[in-house]
Design a protein that fits this description.
With 205 residues, the protein is α+β, with helices and mostly antiparallel strands. Helices cover 61% and strands 13% of the residues. The chain has helices at 5-8, 15-46, 53-77, 79-106, 110-125, 152-160, 166-177; strands at 133-139, 143-150, 183-186, 198-204. The protein has a 4-stranded antiparallel beta sheet. Helix 3 packs across helix 4 (79-106), helix 3 packs across helix 6 (152-160) and helix 4 runs parallel beside helix 7. It is globular, with a radius of gyration of 18 Å.
Length: 205
């Protein structure tokens, strides 16, 4: 069952954005914008019920909330500024997640643990049932290589009329996995930037 829009738009990752809105619009203005985003998200959620359960999780937890906020920011500040504001809060969220991954990789045996968990997450949360189409090339304890040929984020943002937001989620990967001790993450292209696939390569070094 889908979570209500108010619950989906709660969380520490929005704290910095809300603080910016308060500075620019005042407390009442920021609160009013957030209520409009919740109402907009309600309408979006009503149209996502037909999605398979696995894909719905990604779309309703990440794609639709981002779009609801983005469109309200566009109405208030224009498209360029709205994109910058979404980019800022997502970058901060990714940086916080990266700290946790760095701690894991730095533990004794942490690199092996990271590789095992990463492989399981790819199979369980980013597979066909979740709306992804992957070509698995190599899954070993030291190297994971796969290509994403179709992605619910790429598809969902395009369908919502905000394809430019997808690249921000791709940047999350680079922030989270790109600077881990003893782990190398590489990707030469993404669907969001016009490539025919997202080529994920992550390995112990």
């Amino acid at each position: 069952m889908a979570k209500p829009s108010r619950e989906l738009l709660k969380g520490r990752k929005y704290d910095t954005l809300i603080a910016q809105l308060v500075d620019r619009l005042g407390t009442d203005g920021a609160a009013a914008l957030w209520v409009r985003a919740e109402r907009r998200l309600d309408g979006m959620l009503a149209k996502s019920k037909w999605l398979p359960e696995g894909e719905k999780l990604h779309v309703e937890m990440f794609v639709l909330p981002s779009c609801a906020i983005y469109f309200e920011l566009i109405d208030a500040f224009g498209k360029d500024e709205a994109f910058r504001m979404v980019d800022d809060y997502m970058a901060e969220y990714s940086a916080n997640a990266a700290v946790a991954f760095k701690r894991i990789a730095a533990l004794p045996g942490g690199r092996g643990l990271f590789m095992r968990v990463f492989g399981k997450v790819v199979r369980l949360a980013f597979g066909e049932k979740q709306g992804f189409k992957n070509e698995l090339l190599e899954f070993t304890p030291s190297r994971i290589a796969y290509d994403v040929l179709a992605c619910p984020y790429h598809r969902g943002f395009a369908q919502m009329g905000a394809p430019e937001l997808c690249q921000l989620f791709c940047c999350n990967d680079e922030v989270c996995y790109g600077h881990l001790d003893g782990i190398r993450f590489t990707r030469t292209g993404t669907l969001a930037k016009g490539a025919d696939r997202c080529d994920f390569r992550i390995e112990r070094v």
